[in-house]
Amino acid sequence: MPSGPIIFSVTKKENLFYVDVKQDEYTAYLSQSMQKPANFAIWHRCLAHTGTDTLQNMIRNKLVDGMNTYGEIALGEMCKDCIFEKHISHPYNGTMVKERDVLECVHIDLWGLVQVQSARDAHYFMAITDGFSLY
Ligand SMILES: [Zn+2]
């Protein structure tokens, strides 16, 4: 027979299982955390690289039972995983020189063959943008 508090129950109706969470207890549970404290960086990684402010709020206000920590409540250094994985693109390595006049630099994007042709039967598209005016 299991011991400890019941935090949810499951009932089956036809072919679906319905989870009934006790709404009077707004508590998050983490396994193993009550036995072994972890520092801020480990919690950051364990909780899917949660934002620093959110994680600090969780710890300082004791929002999660069993979330034992030690050490400083901050990341000691920037998280490399967050830097590389949360950016859409990597920064340019070189410097960018801004155009000073119209038609000094023209950017052309050509793409195709598209599977669905345009209203005028085009299968390729080309966008031409002036680097100075952005038209
Ligand atoms: Zn991270």
Low-confidence stretches: none
Please state the oligomeric state of the protein chains shown. single chain
- How large is the count of helical segments? 3
- How many strand units? 8
Helix content: 10-25%
Overall morphology: flat
Give the strand order, joined by hyphens, for the main sheet: 1-2
Task: Tell me the series of helices and strands, N- to C-terminal.
Answer: EEEEHHEEHEE
Distance between the termini: 72 Å
Task: Calculate Rg over CA atoms.
Answer: 27 Å
Protein structure class: alpha/beta
Describe the protein in words.
The chain has 135 residues and is α/β, with parallel strands linked by helices. The chain has two domains: 8-85, no CATH class; 98-135, no CATH class. The protein has three helices and eight strands, in the order E-E-E-E-H-H-E-E-H-E-E. The N and C termini lie far apart (72 Å). The model has no long low-confidence stretch (mean pLDDT 82). The chain binds zinc ion. Zinc ion is lined by residues 44, 49, 79, 81-82.
How do the helices and strands line up, and which of them pair or pack?
Elements: E1 8-13, E2 16-21, E3 28-29, E4 38-39, H1 40-46, H2 52-60, E5 64-65, E6 69-70, H3 80-85, E7 106-112, E8 124-130
Parallel strand pairs: 3-5, 4-6
Antiparallel strand pairs: 1-2, 7-8
This protein binds zinc ion.
Question: What's this, in brief?
Answer:
The chain is an alpha/beta fold and 135 residues long. Helices cover 16% and strands 25% of the residues.
